[in-house]
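pasting for the record
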Amino acid sequence: RREAPAVGSVSYLIRQSGQVRYANQNWTTSIQGVSANYPPITNWRIMAGRGISREDVSGAALVVVLGQTVLRQLFGADESPLGAVIQVKGMPLRVIGILASKGQTPYGTDQDDVVMIPFTTAERKVLGVAAPSLQQTPLNWVYPPPPNPY
């Protein structure tokens, strides 16, 4: 912050497409390794459970937060996913939270077709360490702060 005072927040993001599985259900989705502050920076809300914590990141915890599309594809309408263990690219991760729906982008991309895991878990156990690319280090992605409700 000392060297970039205009920057309000920074978050780590690594992503890759991959398969998630629960029981006999399989789905290919966007797997995002994120830091704890990524959801609030990008206006994601947690609908149930909790989000990824700093402790999850520091400990490379085996936890996952599901987007609504992934939730619908893997779980039945009467099933509670919280506490369930799903496979993310073959790695068993415990579901700790569910994201609120964001819907489609103006370009038609389903924003809810996502799972989020601690970036340390992504690098060390699920996705591997990737060399930074323009998609992984988008300094031009600016997210306005959430509106002040007061």
